[in-house]
Design brief:
Blueprint: H1 7-21, H2 29-40, E1 54-62, H3 71-93, H4 98-110, E2 131-137, E3 142-149, H5 155-165, E4 170-172, H6 173-182, H7 196-213, E5 291-296, E6 302-308, E7 329-331, E8 335-341, H8 343-348, H9 351-361, H10 366-381, E9 385-391, E10 396-397, E11 404-411, E12 417-421
Parallel strand pairs: 3-4
Antiparallel strand pairs: 1-5, 1-11, 2-3, 2-6, 5-6, 7-8, 8-9, 9-10, 11-12
Helix pairs in contact: 1-2, 3-4, 4-5, 9-10
This protein binds aspartic acid.
Aspartic acid binds near residues 60, 310, 311, 322 and 328.
Length: about 425
C-alpha cells in the first residue's frame, strides 16, 4: 500500500536536500527542481496526490534513460510539459470545464516538435504522418475521435469537433478532413509535421526491417536488392496533400509528407517478425511519445484526451489505441484515463475502460486499479506502456511498466510537477 502523500511536506523535505547540494556546486536550480519533481512523482512508492481539482498529462512512455537524454533536450521537454500543465490549469482555475483544460494542454504538446503528436509526429512506413486523436467528456459520455488524418494541425481539436458538431464518435482519413473543412478548420500542408529526427528514426527502422527480411547472400551478407532508398528527399521536398475525398496521390516511396501508397507485398509485415514497431534499433529507444491529458474540474467533472502520430514505421492505415474509446482514451463520471504505449495491446486489453470498470465494479481505488492493469495484466501480456488517470475524488495515478514516461501533474495550488524517469 502506498502512503498518503502530502505534496507540500514532500517538497519541503526534498528542498532541504536541494539546499545541501546547491552550495557544493553539484546541481543547477533547474536540476534541483527536476530532482524534486522526479522524487515527488516516483513510481516505486506512488504518491496519493489528491487535489480538489487538477490536471495530469503524459508525453509518452518507453525506454527513456538519463544517458540517452541530453540535459538540453530534457530541460526543453520539461519546459513544454510545464507549459501544457499551466495551460490546463489556467482553464480550471477560472472555473472552466475539464474538457477545455484537456484540449488546452494537449494543444501545447501537439505544437511541440518534441512529442509524437501534431508537429513532430512519427512517420509511417511510407514516410507519411498519419495522426490519431480522441477526447471524451466524462459527465455526458460524449466522445469524438479521428484517425489517419494527414493535414490537421491539432487533431485534438478535430476530435472535439466530431464530438460536438457531428452525430458520430469517430471519423477517419479524408472523410474526417472533409468534415474539418466543412467546420471551417483549415488543412495544413503535410510537410508542417516533418522533423528531421522523426525522419531519421523511420530510416533506421526501415534499415533494420530490410536487414531482417533480406535473404542471406552466398557470402552470408544480407542482399541489397529491392531496397528502398534509405535517404529520402530533403525536408524541403514539397508535400503532396491530397484533397479530402480524392484518392491518394501516386506512389513515391520514402518521401516525407507524401501520400501513402499500398506497400508492395515484399514489405508487408512477416508473421513472427521480430521487429518491434516504434523501437529505434540504434538507440534501442521505445519512446512512443504520444501525448494525453486527464482533468477534474471545480464542478467535479472529468475528461480525457489523447493525440498521437502512432508508431514509427506503422503500416499505412494502421490505427492505434489512442483514438479508440475505451482503449487509449476513456472518461466517465467517476474515472478518466489516457494511455500511451504499444497500442495493439491497449486495444486488445481495452486498457482505459478496464481501469475504470475495476473502479466501478470492484470498488477498487483508482491507483490500485490502474497499477494492476498496467503492471500485472499488461506486463503478463507483453504490452509496454502506461496511463495517466484521475477519479472524481481527485486521486491521481500514473503507472507505467517501461523505464520512463513523460508525465506531469498540477493541482489547485498551481505548482507544476514534471517527471520523466522511473527512479528519482
Ligand atoms: N499508443 C500509441 C499507438 O500505439 C503510441 C504511443 O503511445 O506513443 O499508436
Amino acid at each position: 500500500m502506498s502512503p498518503t502523500f502530502s505534496p507540500r511536506m514532500h517538497r519541503s523535505l526534498l528542498a532541504g536536500t536541494a539546499l545541501l547540494l546547491a552550495p557544493m556546486g553539484c546541481a543547477t536550480s533547474s536540476q534541483v527542481g527536476a530532482a524534486r519533481d522526479e522524487a515527488a512523482l516516483r513510481t516505486d512508492e506512488p504518491p496519493r496526490v489528491k487535489p480538489k481539482w487538477g490536471l495530469v498529462i503524459h508525453g509518452g512512455a518507453g525506454v527513456i534513460s538519463r544517458e540517452n537524454l541530453s540535459p538540453e533536450r530534457e530541460a526543453a521537454m520539461r519546459a513544454v510539459l510545464t507549459q501544457a500543465l499551466q495551460a490546463g490549469h489556467a482553464v480550471l482555475a477560472k472555473g472552466g470545464r475539464s474538457l477545455d483544460a484537456v484540449t488546452a494542454a494537449i494543444r501545447v504538446l501537439e505544437d511541440s516538435p518534441y512529442f509524437n503528436a501534431g508537429k513532430g509526429a512519427v512517420f509511417n512506413h511510407d514516410g507519411v504522418n498519419e495522426l490519431d486523436a480522441a477526447v471524451m467528456d466524462g459527465k455526458t459520455r460524449m466522445a469524438g475521435a479521428v484517425a489517419g488524418v494527414r493535414h490537421i494541425q491539432n487533431p485534438i481539436d478535430l476530435a472535439r469537433l466530431v464530438m460536438e458538431k457531428s452525430p458520430h464518435v469517430m471519423m477517419v482519413g479524408d472523410g474526417a478532413e472533409a468534415f474539418a473543412q466543412s467546420q471551417g478548420m483549415p488543412l495544413v500542408d503535410a510537410k508542417y509535421f516533418f522533423t528531421e529526427e522523426r525522419w531519421q528514426g523511420l530510416q533506421r527502422a526501415l534499415e533494420q526491417e530490410r536487414a531482417k527480411e533480406a535473404p542471406p547472400t552466398e557470402q552470408g551478407q544480407p542482399s541489397t536488392q529491392g531496397q528502398t532508398p534509405t535517404q529520402g528527399p530533403s525536408p524541403a521536398t514539397p508535400a503532396q496533400p491530397s484533397a479530402p475525398g480524392q484518392p491518394p496521390a501516386p506512389p513515391v516511396p520514402s518521401s516525407p509528407g507524401q501520400a501513402p501508397t499500398t506497400p508492395p507485398p515484399s514489405k508487408q509485415p512477416q508473421p513472427g517478425s521480430s521487429l518491434t514497431p516504434g523501437v529505434d534499433p540504434i538507440t534501442g529507444d521505445h519512446k512512443f511519445g504520444t501525448v494525453g491529458a486527464v482533468a477534474l474540474d471545480q464542478h467535479g467533472d472529468l475528461a480525457a484526451g489523447t493525440s498521437t502520430g502512432g508508431m514509427t514505421n506503422k503500416r499505412f492505415g494502421r490505427v492505434g489505441d489512442s483514438p479508440i474509446i475505451g482503449a487509449g482514451t476513456y472518461a466517465d463520471e467517476r474515472c478518466a484515463v489516457s494511455a500511451t504505449g504499444h497500442g495493439e495491446f491497449f486495444i486488445r486489453y481495452t486498457v482505459a475502460r478496464d481501469i475504470c470498470a475495476r473502479v466501478e465494479y470492484q470498488d477498487l481505488p483508482l491507483p490500485e486499479a490502474a497499477s494492476y492493469v498496467i503492471n500485472d495484466v499488461l506486463v503478463k501480456a507483453g504490452g509496454e506502456g502506461g496511463v495517466i488517470a484521475m477519479d472524481r475524488q481527485g486521486h491521481v495515478a500514473m503507472p507505467f511498466n517501461s523505464s520512463g514516461m513523460y508525465r506531469g501533474y498540477i493541482g489547485e495550488d498551481g505548482t507544476p510537477t514534471v517527471a520523466i524517469f522511473q527512479q528519482p
